[in-house]
């Protein structure tokens, strides 16, 4: 038997990156999967987001495990759309046991309009709230909610809102604030749900080897001395983020944590901030 055998799991932002890896890992461990992704670009986010073909490919990867999968193109900012898509998915799958609220964007760059702040915050925090609150009606004792925060957001909170702007611009500030709110929201949610034996925990990764990290806006944040830095330039400074001498963690490293929190191995673990950060929070 797999570690999440027989469970039905919702993963948002599941078409590629961390979300896809979480979905595949959970399916390999026995879960049936519901995948949501916007499958379109979002204004002010300069790197391309997933496409419908990415969602299709993610479904095929899940199916290789022999488990069921259903998917929908959903913008997590739209509560009504999330509710409708989830109702259809739960009707097809029969139940919902685990929510992995993973969808997120990180629009970086100086001189961005305030819309970049709003879009980052709306996707990264409001989207988490919409996902979780739409799911609550289906969850029963033993269910697990896993939100995805960011060590970078926690470090920005320690530095203060002025420092959080830095070279990141309005979009980066919105991202950091959203991740800080996710942390506080998840802990408050855990306290509310514990009498129902439903758990809520937040995973805080450091840099992760995904398209969110590999784009010029992110490279520029780590190499503000260069006009058009590339990956090789950023790789020289990426390790400064972590305590361990590595540039980033892999999506699989985060998936291990997600799988643990989704499984009954963590049946009495709730209200935890699980940092997959290679010592970044210790360093700073």
UniProtKB/TrEMBL annotation:
Coiled coil: none annotated. One of its GO terms (molecular function) is oxidoreductase activity, acting on NAD(P)H, oxygen as acceptor. Keywords: NAD, Oxidoreductase. InterPro entries: NAD(P)-bd_dom_sf, SDR_fam, SDR_subfam_1. The keyword NAD applies. It comes from the Bacteria. Pfam families: adh_short_C2. PANTHER family: BENZIL REDUCTASE (PTHR43008), CHAIN DEHYDROGENASE, PUTATIVE (AFU_ORTHOLOGUE AFUA_4G08710)-RELATED (PTHR43008:SF4). Belongs to the short-chain dehydrogenases/reductases (SDR) family. This is 3-ketoacyl-ACP reductase. It comes from Mycolicibacter hiberniae. The lineage of its organism: Bacteria, Bacillati, Actinomycetota, Actinomycetes, Mycobacteriales.
């Amino acid at each position: 038997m797999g570690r999440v055998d027989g469970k039905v799991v919702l993963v948002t932002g599941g078409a590629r990156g961390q979300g896809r890896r979480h979905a595949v890992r959970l399916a390999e461990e026995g879960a049936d999967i519901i995948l949501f992704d916007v499958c379109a670009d979002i204004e002010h986010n300069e790197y391309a987001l997933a496409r419908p073909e990415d969602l299709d490919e993610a479904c095929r990867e899940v199916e290789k495990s022999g488990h069921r999968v259903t998917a929908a193109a959903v913008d997590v900012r739209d509560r009504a759309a999330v509710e409708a898509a989830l109702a259809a998915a739960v009707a097809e799958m029969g139940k919902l046991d685990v929510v992995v609220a993973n969808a997120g964007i990180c629009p970086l760059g100086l001189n961005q309009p305030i819309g970049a702040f709003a879009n980052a915050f709306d996707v990264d925090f409001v989207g988490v709230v919409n996902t979780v609150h739409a799911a609550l009606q289906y969850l029963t004792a033993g269910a697990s909610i896993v939100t995805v925060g960011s060590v970078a957001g926690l470090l920005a909170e320690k530095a203060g809102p002025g420092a959080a702007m830095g070279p990141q611009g309005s979009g980066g500030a919105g991202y950091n604030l959203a991740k800080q709110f996710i942390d506080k929201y998840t802990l408050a949610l855990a306290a509310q749900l514990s009498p129902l034996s439903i758990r809520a925990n937040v995973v805080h990764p450091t840099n992760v080897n995904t398209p969110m990290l590999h784009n010029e806006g992110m490279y520029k944040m780590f190499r503000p001395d260069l006009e058009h830095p590339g990956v090789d330039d950023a790789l020289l400074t990426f390790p400064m983020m972590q305590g361990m001498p590595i540039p980033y963690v892999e999506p699989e490293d985060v998936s291990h944590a997600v799988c643990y929190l989704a499984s009954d191995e963590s049946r009495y673990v709730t209200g935890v901030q699980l940092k997959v950060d290679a010592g970044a929070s210790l360093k700073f």
